[in-house]
Each structure stands twice: as structure tokens, then as C-alpha cells.
Amino acid sequence: MSQEVKTPTLTFQDYGIFFHGLWPGNPKFTEKDYPSLDGKVVIVTGANSGVGYQTVKSLLGSTKAKVYFFARNAERAAEAIQKIELEVAAEYKKTRLDVHFIQIDLSDLTSIKPAVDKFLELESRLDIVIHNAGVMFPKEGATTKQGFELQLGTNNIGPHLLQHYLDPILIKTSKLNKVNESRIVWVSSTASFLAPTGGIHYADPNFSNTPNPDEKIVYGQSKAVNILQSKHWNIAHPEATNVVNASLCPGYLRTELQRNAKGFEAFLYRILFHDARYGAYTELFAALSPEVNTKNTGAHVISFGTVSRARDDLCDPANAEKAWNFLEEQIKPYV
Hints:
Largest sheet: 8 strands, mixed
Shape: globular
Number of helices: 9
Structural class: alpha/beta
Strand order of the largest sheet: 3-2-1-4-5-6-9-10
Strand content: 5-15%
Oligomer: single chain
Helix content: 40-55%
Order of helices and strands: HEHEHEHEHEHEEHEHEEH
CATH superfamily: NAD(P)-binding Rossmann-like Domain
CATH architecture: 3-Layer(aba) Sandwich
Number of domains: 1
């Protein structure tokens, strides 16, 4: 039987970050502030809907970036791209978009290297990766193809393997870029404050032997790990001095992530949460703003573009290293 799931006591500052999400104010870093990104290549995962969709649309409408749309469902991706083209033409008066789709399933580790191989056949550079794809509150007992708890597998292990395969081209490109232009963005959540102490319930990380696990803690674990990935990537890659990492909570947003929410909880999401477009401002702040840079790599950003802080234990380098080593062990059979 697994050990009890332990979570730390939250501070007043932690609760302040929770409440910030309800009344974050208007974004200050918006399309007018974005660099041109002419000649730059950006990957956004999970862009068929929600924040990822809005992030891709904003990038295509307001910059000259070449955007790769990594997603699981090809039919939905084609529909999303067609819709983006129409909306960008209407909102930004721009009709020629440099957007491309590559199929990947982050819940199936065997799909990841073929997706990266396809990307590498098409591109010789990579400037920004936004790990946006994720799942929240799946059906009880849901797992990935490899048997990981679905949120841990899709939100952490899949992206970790994806980034592993993208690291060489990203690092190579970073040596050609100006300082702060190369970035990795890990989309986390304020739910990370609900995660087990240290970020991961190592006694039973898949919660398969934990009776009646709290779904918020299980989801919070996956979002805490995104922060730990951001914190440790530069330490694990000391040669990549010009790559900036950041994690973020995009904001309290109405997206498909809440599709499994029920009852009063679903009602609260509808009345208190913000339009998904605002989350794109948070993601693009982390990806483009000069406030996020090599001096504060591993920074944590909250809605809708504010450099903040993560829970204290998630800022502990020892916890970040332990989580990184755990993820490395999980992807080893696929490397």
C-alpha cells in the first residue's frame, strides 16, 4: 500500500497568487509589443483549441514567425488551421500564414520521435518551444499507452521526451540567436500549489495504489512537475547559456480542460474564469517578453503576464533535480 500523500501548508503569499488569478487586470504585454520573429521557427503543442489555439493565432497574426502546430488529431488540426486563417484575416488583415501541422500523441511515447524526425526533415532551426498541450481531470483510472497516469504521462513524460529530441536543434539555433531569443515555455497551473510535497508523490506517482486519490492533487502533481522541468533544464544543459526557460499559469480560463468538470464546480468555471484568449497573452509574455530572460531563467509567470513565484519547495534545486532524474528514468526506454 502506498504512503500517505503529503502536501505542504500554503503561505499567505501563496493564497495571494490564487486570488490574483480571479482579478489579474488587463495584459500589458500584447501584440503591439511582440518582436517581428522574422525567420524564427516556433513549435506550439496542443493547439487545436483553447489557449494553444489562441497563442498560435496571435503569433500568426502579429508576427512573422513560422509556426508548427503539434497536435494529436489531424482532422481537428486541419479544422483549427482553417479557422485560424479566417480569424487572422478578419482580425489582423493578414492572409498569408506560415503554419504547419505535425501529428503527435504525447500520451504515446512511441509517437514522439517520428514527429520530431518529420520536423527535422523540414527545418534546420528551432527558436521557441511552447509546451502547451495537457489534460486535466480525466476519467478515473485513465492511463497513457505506456500505462502512466494520464496527466503525468501527457503533461510531463511526453513533453520531457519531446524536448529531449528537440534539444539539439534548439541549442544549435540558440548559438546563432541574440541573447534571450531562444526559449522553452512550460505551461503549468496554479493547481501546482496543491501538489504533493516536493512536487511528486514518489511512493506512488501514478496514484494506482492510492485509495480515492484527490483529483486536484493528482492534476497538481503534473503541473508542479512542469515547474520543476523549467527550473532544472538549464542546469541539465550548462552548454545552453542562451536558452531561457519559463513556466506559467496561463490564468483561470474557460477551455476544454474543464470538459470533465461537473455540477457546482463547472458552474464556477463558467462565471469566474476568463476567455482563453487572455491565456495567450500569458504564454506569449513568457515566450517573448524581455522581462523573462537569461538572468531569471526558470521564472514563473502568472496571468496575464506577471513574473511571480512558484511554491517554495518547487523552487528548491534538489527537488527539481530529483524530478528531472525521475523523468529521465521514465523516458530511458524510448531514447
